[in-house]
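Researcher: I'd like a structural prediction for the single chain below. Treat it as a standalone chain; there are no partners to consider.
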Amino acid sequence: MTASGTILAIDNDAPTVVLIAELLTDEGYRVYTVSNAGCALALALTVRPELVLCDLHMPGRNGMLLVEDLRSHGLTNVPIVMMTADTSAPERLAAQGIDVCLKPFDLDELLDCVATHIRHPEHSKT
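Model: Treating it as a single chain, here is the predicted structure.
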């Protein structure tokens, strides 16, 4: 069965965002990518993604500031998953209702995370 849904992936590391886009596109998702939080808000308001995958630590506006921007612009029900290599992040972010996918990715775990949030957004904490 082919997956479907629209995903916005934000990461300032070009190889990472290319990997995510290729992997998820091959699975049947429509994937939009940007390299910074500043561009992400405008694109999110245009494409209305069903899931946002966002790097936590980026130059300029980080992932948490982007979450605030998305929520304040009415994207309150869109699940957001932070991607980070920071192993202390899951506990901190869970306290704020945000799920985390740790880098480096296990590709099957990333696919499972995406499928869970797209199919069952009511189970998302955001």
